[in-house]
Amino acid sequence: MALLYKSTRGDKNYITASQAILKGIADDGGLYVPCSIPKADFKLEDIVDMSYKELAYEVLKLILDDFTEEELKACINGAYDEKFDTPAIAPLRLTQDCGVLELFHGKTIAFKDMALSILPYLLKTSAKKNGEDRTIVILTATSGDTGKAALEGFADVEGTGIIVFFPQDGVSDVQRMQMITQEGKNTCVAGIKGNFDDAQTAVKKAFTNKALKAELAEEGYVFSSANSINIGRLAPQIVYYFYAYARMVKAGKINCGDKIDFVVPTGNFGNILAGYYAREMGLPVNKLVCASNENKVLFDFFETGKYDVNREFILTSSPSMDILISSNLERLLYHLSGSTEVVKGLMDNLSSKGVYDFSAKGSGFVGEYSTEEETFAAIKDVYEKEGYVLDTHTAVAYSAYKKYLKKTNDKTPAVVVSTASPYKFARDVLTAIDSKYSGMDPFEAVRALSEVSETNIPAPIKDIDKRPVLHNFCIERENIEEFIKERLAK
Ligand SMILES: *Cc1c(COP(=O)(O)O)cnc(C)c1O
Known about the structure:
Elements: E1 5-7, H1 17-23, E2 32-34, H2 44-47, H3 52-63, H4 69-79, E3 92-94, E4 99-102, H5 112-116, H6 119-129, E5 135-141, H7 145-154, E6 160-167, H8 173-180, E7 187-192, H9 196-208, H10 210-218, E8 221-224, H11 231-250, E9 260-265, H12 270-281, E10 285-292, H13 297-304, E11 306-308, H14 329-337, H15 340-353, E12 355-357, E13 365-369, H16 372-386, H17 392-408, E14 414-418, H18 426-433, H19 442-453, E15 473-475, H20 480-489
Parallel strand pairs: 4-14, 5-6, 5-8, 6-7, 7-15, 9-10, 9-14, 10-13
Antiparallel strand pairs: 1-2, 3-4, 11-12
Bound molecules: pyridoxal-5'-phosphate.
């Protein structure tokens, strides 16, 4: 019996994993969830010595069960290779207080690589399985990390094309240089005049423009999306929770069967939701600590049962977590309530009033948050104690973990999930260590961080300010559809 996926909002169309990956989002606006979360059919003892790829197969075959062994292994082998700078793929670093799961060893040095390295393969395989032979064009609006990781994932993947739009003045210098120097004959990057919301709205409009869709279908193109509502991004993230557990066993920190806590720096709730799936599949997890920055909607939600976006949007030094509407929370609401009707009601309230009430008590999630000051103090503290430099997002989680410990005295061994290399936010992490760096040129800061942390600059951003610019478009948002047509005609 194949595992079927359905919409969180009640659409009666049940589909397979590969169809859900192709579609991305359900017709009623809901997200695809598995009708039941499969149980792991392996023993924990059996995974302790597995490589990342071997473990990925064991986990993905359960959740993407309409893929054949051959298909899935080809996807995994294509994704988790020398693109990562360590054969461990997701190494676990031990600190005095906890394990730190480093998810930043891929091509864009942020955790989005874990899923976006494999998504192109999953998508292509899904297309083939379902008789979709048009070229799949990925349209993405990005505030920084997703766009670059998607570009790297889809670059030169046959049968696909990718167009990324970023707000001309809304990304960091390192992030912009990472994108406009992107290689690959099927890639295209353009700045949009305006902020992230302008870019996002323009892309959504193009996405849902039926005339544009029909016109491009004639020419053999079909749109798809690489953002985190796609189940093809969620599934690969489940793997590293099992992997982290296995590494904790291997390091002698726990015995097979012992519970551990995971602490996850959270924005769109995709990463931590994968931890929830891992637990439902049978991984012994005690608490999932959901760490927010000053945009602490999720902390308030887990504390009070009220999700309320009617508040000031705060720009922080952990920009990938600056978010008020965490779209993947919808999936958790479905799994906790078991009712698409309830979810639909909550989502209607969210879009009309920006607020809803739902108690997640007993779910095993705990909300915690870290202020800017606390985050910077955590970076300095860990650096001074162990010479290890946390990035700003990871530091939010580390600091939230310390606050959680103070409140609860929880003795469970914990793993903090590390989502970015400190090099991606070099000036901020240096400033946390010593305020003298606060005015430094951002590319200069990358070189300074190498000295301070006594580590090598990761190859993906080495001398990035000196690379040739390959994409020099800056367009008005009204012209986005013209632009897409023009690029695809080339
Ligand atoms: C995307 C991102 C996050 C947030 O992850 P979600 O899955 O959206 O919760 C945290 N840190 C970094 C560096 C990211 O790029």
